What does this fold into?
Amino acid sequence: MSLPPAAAEPPGGAVPTGDGNGGGVVGRVPARRGGRAMFRGEWVIEFLIRLCGWSSIICVAAIFYFIIQEAAPVLPTMDWGEFFGSVIWRPTSAVPRYGALALIVGNLAVAIVAMAMAVPLGLGAAVYISEFAGPRVRETMKIAIEVLAAVPSIVWGFIGLTIISPLLIRYAGAELGGNLLNGAVILALMSVPLIVSISEDALRAVPDSYREAAMALGANKWEMVRRVLFPAARNGLLAACMLGVGRAVGETMAVLLATGNVVQIPHSFVDPIKTLTATIAAEMGEATPGQPHYQVLFLIGILLLVITCAINVIADFIIKGAKAKANA
Amino acid sequence: MNSSISIDVRDFNLWYGDFQALHHVSVEIKPGIITSLIGPSGCGKTTLLRSFNRINERYGNVRTTGRITILGKNILDEDVSVASLRKRTGMVFQRPNPLPISVYENVIFGIKSHTPSSQLGRRVLDEAVETALREVSLWEDVKDRLKSRATELTLEQQQKLCIARLLPLKPDIILMDEPCSALDAAGIERIEELIGELKRTFTIVMVTHNMAQARRASDECIFMLMGEIIEHSATVELFGSPKHEKTGMYIEGRYG
It folds into this structure.
């Protein structure tokens, strides 16, 4: 009798329950034999692991503490109306003026313009890599994106300075090569790899059964992406975009080189601007510790921290809100 | 073409890469009855089922020869629209797979893909949802939760929803890949009952591992082994007096 090999199907319940119980008892014995030493070792490990977990909170608290400490002396005498309302930033003149409005607007503007470019590009690339590309193309692209993510920010700044500047002067009518658009393009290019890799993970994590369900209903691939994958991967995609925003707001070196560093509120995409981050980087070296200028730079640091924290909290609320709505 | 045949398979071969999964399959599946595909794991029954709506092709390394004629058209022809083929041949999967959107959106997912949105007023959609859910006797359970996420329903409700979302497309054929294997006994009974009602309107082809289910729920059975069809006959006959020795051994539980 020639029975087919297919007959070797695994039997129904793989492990008989009797064995399962026996295994449990046997498994417990070595732990008892280990005695006190084992117990103490475990305590140490548990303590270390707990420390690792808490270290994140400790770090955040410490960062806030030290930055606030540096900025503290200037806080009581600070003219807040000027800080948030004036565009005059003259920290080194005889009568120093600390109006940060243009810096705040410049920082946010360059981040927003960068995201307007990076989010569609990044999501599109992620969708292509996860849903349309063949295995070989996918692997090649993922490597390229990892390389892109590893380019140091100073190199990006250099690219902005030497490659994008002349292009903007020639084709976008910019007077100076260093401007808002240049910084935004560089920031977009820097955020895209981050957005792509996290979005791609989120899309790949969507169970394949959803794709089959949509396709079996006759949906084409684009419909499947739009109506099934995006809702299913929403939280991951949002997280990817928020990390991109965080990077765009906090990036320093590249914008220092690419934005032109003129303290003004931009009126067009090709106006030069200066960001909060670039201001700290450019001026910290010449500011004297303990002097108001130095302390105001730390105040700007606090402001940056608050902005990025706010972005994270808002993202959290959006994600929770979306969840609550989905569960309603 | 014979109108008493719903799916007509002629000398159909299928390869995954170099591996030939189906060998010279020829079979005629009749409308208005339930046909079960049975056989041990790896015999090709799911592959055959998944060839009827060409969803196998998404793996990319699939090659076929032969013909599969559904409603007078060879679905393997170049000019066949896969979207409209899938509209006519709905599929229910082994594991209930409602989409991670609301119950309501699940039911209308298909018509939204196949109908221009100008023809889909609120009223049309509401009516389609209610009709479909009533037909699978799910309406009473979920009518107050149409906006909640479909993945929160019980498995049995999810599977009913997966059947319901095919109905607004008015398919001719429903393909089922072990539709009850994720359910408990009570769920199995109710889904089988539902399938029994659906056969009046649709051609139903069902893959099952469960001999007892094939026996009680289907009208005809196709027994497959190693990518070939060994026997195709009325369920009563196949289980009562199998023509082929291997069929007999399989249904007696001697292997598989």
User: Anything to note?
Assistant: Chain B touches chain A through 41 residues (CB under 8 Å). The two ends of chain B are 36 Å apart (CA to CA). The mean pLDDT of chain B is 91. The longest helix of chain B spans residues 122-135.
